[in-house]
Design goal:
Mean pLDDT: 91
Helix content: 25-40%
Low-confidence stretches: 1-21
Order of helices and strands: HHHEHEHEEHEE
Shape: globular
Structural class: alpha+beta
CATH topology: NADH Oxidase
CATH architecture: 3-Layer(aba) Sandwich
Largest sheet: 6 strands, antiparallel
Strand content: 5-15%
Radius of gyration: 21 Å
Number of domains: 1
Distance between the termini: 53 Å
Number of helices: 6
Amino acid sequence: MKKLIIIALAAIGIAACSNQPKVMENETIHNIMTRVSVRNFTGEKISEAQLDTLLRAAMAAPSAINKQPWAFIVVTDETKIAALGEALPFSRCSNHPAVAIIPCGDLSKAIPGEMGAFWINDVSAATENLLLAAHAMGLGAVWTGLHPDMNRAKMVQDMLGLPEHIIPLCIVPVGVPAEQPEIKDKFVPENIHYNAW
């Protein structure tokens, strides 16, 4: 009887394994591997529900000591988006995104002292979540850098009235894609070192 139970359990285990998707067929992995930077948009609006999902995904990111030292400036006003695009052409805000999201570090929530710079890691993780969520929803987005170029960061602080303790990391224009960039395979085996250099 004991032998039959063991055989039955083994059969169940094999069946369960055979039902598992191959790594590249996994929906999450596929989303990561196929995400591209979209720099041109149709100008179509996105829904409040889509925007809410993007922001919830961003804030689901990990952060050091769970400080969550982030703030998100959501720019939906077309005049302000155009002004960002004019002042910062690299931001792609002139290319008709539905919204420009500016992930920021909130230094009032950061770890005190020299460890405070972990906010950069935390807000970067949130930004990547935002990009992946946009792609999963059929939207396009691109990460355009501000920090550590403090001239760029200060320009955004001034334009949007941000207090000194709110540091903009980047601008992420999001919208309905007006282009389909080629997916790039960025895997380089030479960049991998096991156990030591």
